[in-house]
Amino acid sequence: MAQISVADKEVTVKIVYYGPGMSGKTTNLLYIHQRIMSKNLTDMVSIATEGDRTLYFDFLPLETDIIPGFKAKFQLYTVPGQVQYNATRKLVLQGADGVVFVADSQWSRQKDNVDSFTNLKENLLEEGVKLSDIPYILEYNKRDLADAARPEYMEYLLNREEFKVPSFEAVATEGKGVFEVLNYITRMVVAKILKDIKK
Q1: Rounded to whole angstroms, how far apart are CA atoms 125 and 15?
Q2: What is the model's pTM?
Q3: How confident is the model at residue 50 (pLDDT cuts 50, 70, 90)?
Q4: Helix, strand, coil percentages in the chain from 3-state DSSP, rounded to 5
Q5: Residues in a beta bridge with 61
Q6: Closest C-alpha to 143, from 16, 23, 15
Q7: Is the pLDDT of residue 142 over 70?
Q8: Which stretches of the chain are DSSP H helices?
Q9: In the Cβ-directed half-sphere of 177, how many Cα atoms lie within 13 Å?
Q10: CATH 2.60.40.10 for the 3-198 domain, yes or no
Q11: Is the pLDDT of residue 56 over 50?
Q12: Which 8-state DSSP code applies to residue 19?
């Protein structure tokens, strides 16, 4: 849940990139960090194993003036994709204001996508939150690979909730779709915050 300080005119927002191991969550954050030129951009914190997989989380703080009258701090996190680190996934997911589910487009990874998406919903429910209660979008990453599943098939697997959410095709290693995804989830989260502030 966004932290709002009326006295300091500051809002802190948490966006979590979720998905199976090696789907491209960390690659998204690395690309964003490398491309954004800002005096307010601090170092990216990343904890990885020898196999270059995120063990705990990546954390990338950004500051913008996207919310009128407030300084907005966006904290971008990724969760570990490995099943054995589910406790860490739950911890990182706590208090999320928005979620980007990064799916691996390879045919061989479709079951992993579905399992991870189911895990996302289960972990949120344990916190008393339904996925439909928070802004979330889907990123179909690795669209450049020869064995990429058709987007329609991935939509069938992952985007059949009560309401369909926006989905984006991406090649995170090349930056394709990365900022489109970030901009869209940011707009969704800000819209919800502004709506909540007016209540």
Answers
A1: 17
A2: 0.90
A3: very low
A4: 40, 30, 35
A5: 75
A6: 23
A7: yes
A8: 25-35, 86-93, 110-126, 151-158, 178-198
A9: 21
A10: no
A11: no
A12: -
